[in-house]
Amino acid sequence: MNKKILIANRNEIAIRIIRSAKKLGLTTYVIQCNREPDALYLEYADEVVQVKEDLSDKTIFLNPEAIVKIAVEHQIDMIHPGYGFLSENPDFAALCEENGIIFVGPSPQLIRDMGLKTVAKKMAAQAGMPLVPGSADAITDAKVAKAFADNIGYPVILKASAGGGGRGMRIVEKPETMERHFKSAYEEALAAFGNGDIFIEKYLVNPKHLEFQILGDKHGNVIHLGERECSLQRKHQKIIEEAPAASISDDQRARMGELAVNFAKTIGYYSAGTIEFILAEDCSYYFMEMNTRIQVEHPVTEMITGVDLIEWQIRIALGETLTLKQEDIRFNGWAIECRVNTEDPQNRFSPQTGFIEKVSFPQGDHIRIETGVKNFSVVTPYFDSMIAKIIVHGDDRRDCIKKTLRALNDFSISGLKTTVPFCRTVLRSKEFVEATYTTRWVDSVFNTDMLESEEDAMIAALAATITYAKEYFQYSSDSPMFKSESLNVWVLNKRISK
Ligand code: ADP
Ligand code: ADP
Ligand code: MG
Question: pLDDT by residue (tens digit) across 107-119?
């Protein structure tokens, strides 16, 4: 395919997109900016376009005109926006089209509609989706919000209609705090999205977040690729995701998948997309929003279906017919993704910036690493703190948890703290193991005492190494290799003494 694709993004997702684009024979272009001139993604592209930016201005990745100008100058055929940044900006998608460049995503109009949660919810209701009780439209002031809340009952959640990334949300427990929360939600939404519209929903107290991955083409074909559970969140932002979800039955999966496909068909959706549901304690479920882009956690779906979602996103953008049929989609085993953010879980997840002296990722057949960093990379304060994702496949959920823990033990980094120790704590928790965890886990269960000490981490790493070596070399525990040195015994004693 003799075509040029510009990736309007950075970090791991830029590298991920390059991989699929090269598979299709496209020439890949990325943008180098002076906020991170030595970033890893620059090494993967065929062509690097340099830009000089003023650090007091917003980054080029949020500047539609500047990106389209680069694309025109380099005769680019298509632009992939990745996630975040301009991926859900309808004006950017429209500007690409006006300049004869294919935007890898759905139509600008659908990005606009789905970008406003109030509009999306109305369209979803028309397609027969169940909705969380709440206001159909944006609410103008705290008084109206109070009247609504009195009607549906507290607690309620105020949400930014234009919201994303967990921002612009406030939980209101009682009428007295409505005014304060309404004002702060409005101000946060206005600052973050340039739109302060706030709507109200009943706040579900211990819910799970479930989402369906869909693929649709420009010829009306739509399929779903099953669901992901993304309930492990902090401040409404996902940290660990898994596929499939343990808490729904096959029947429920089929029903929800059908609703998702039906909705996408009704609105004429094409490209990859995600329909997010919230699942209440009684297993009732409600449409929450639709993300019109590739998501951070898309690899767990790829791991259990074997489908390359970004390859299909590109093919669909080029007008190809989706040749995958619903019955072709088979689910194999289980997958878990852990986001590696440079944040210190011991210290309220405070962001860590600076040099990565050394980083080493786990390896293995069932492990997939998506990263934007290597030794000596610099983590700057300018962008999101996610530097990598560790994705692990297992035969079933138990096997996957075990393998993920082993993979996390094999991850090491010096120079910066990360969320990896936190992920280990989650994977060992009773609630995760039993799959009863909800979006409230971090607030209601987690405390820093649950994080392991450095010695614990070392013991865990040793234990994992021994287990691995035993399996690999098929040594029995009384093999001389493990007996004589009594490393086993030492690790075991340490564990027992805890
Ligand atoms: P996902 O479900 O894929 O995790 P998120 O809503 O968390 O989706 O957003 C994906 C990524 O994009 C996150 O890294 C988040 O920080 C970033 N992001 C979300 N909204 C914006 C925005 N408006 N501008 C820049 N980055 C954003
Ligand atoms: P965003 O665009 O920021 O991703 P969402 O509407 O998808 O916004 O909500 C993000 C998260 O906030 C959800 O995954 C869930 O944890 C929480 N949340 C949203 N709405 C509700 C609700 N009505 N009740 C309880 N939690 C909610
Ligand atoms: Mg969401």
Answer: 999 999 999 999 9
- The residue nearest atom 4 of ligand 1, judged by CA position, is 296
Ligand 2, pocket residues at CB < 6 Å: 132, 157, 159, 163-166, 169, 201, 203-204, 207, 209, 233, 236, 276, 278, 288-289, 439
DSSP annotation string for 6-33: EE---HHHHHHHHHHHHHTTPEEEEEE-
Q: Quote the pLDDT of residue 484.
A: 41
Identify whether 66 is part of a domain.
Answer: yes
Same domain, 275 and 316: yes
Q: Tell whether 217 is covered by a domain.
A: yes
Asked if 52 and 85 sit in the same domain, the reply is yes
Residues in the chain with pLDDT values less than 50:
484, 498
The pLDDT of residue 479: 57
Is 119 contained in some domain? no
Strands 358-360 and 27-32, bridge-based pairing: unpaired
Indicate whether 296 and 165 sit together in one domain. no
Strand partners, 456: none
Q: Whose Cα sits closest to atom 1 in ligand 2?
A: 164
Q: What is the pLDDT of residue 326?
A: 98
Q: What is the DSSP string of 450-468?
A: GSPPHHHHHHHHHHHHHHH
Going by DSSP bridges, is the β-strand pair 198-202/350-351 parallel, antiparallel, or unpaired? unpaired
Residue 15 is part of which domain span? 4-104
The one catalytic residue in 293, 315, 368, 406 is: 293
**How far is C-alpha 317 from the geometric centre of its chain's CA atoms?**
22
pLDDT of residue 465: 73
Is residue 277 lining ligand 1, measured as CB closer than 6 Å? no
346 and 229 fall within a common domain: yes
pTM: 0.91
> 307-363, pLDDT tens digit by residue?
999 999 999 999 999 999 999 999 999 999 999 999 999 999 999 999 999 999 999
- Please check whether residue 110 lies inside any domain of the structure: no
Nearest CA, atom 5, ligand 1: 165
The per-residue pLDDT for 492 is: 56
426 lies in the same domain as 303: yes
Residues 32 and 161 grouped into a single domain: no
Distance 288 CA to ligand 2 centre (A): 7
Establish whether 293 is a catalytic residue: yes
> Is there a single domain that holds both residue 151 and residue 245?
no
Number of domains in the chain: 4
Those residues with Cβ within 8 angstroms of residue 478's Cβ, 6 or more apart along the chain or in another chain: none
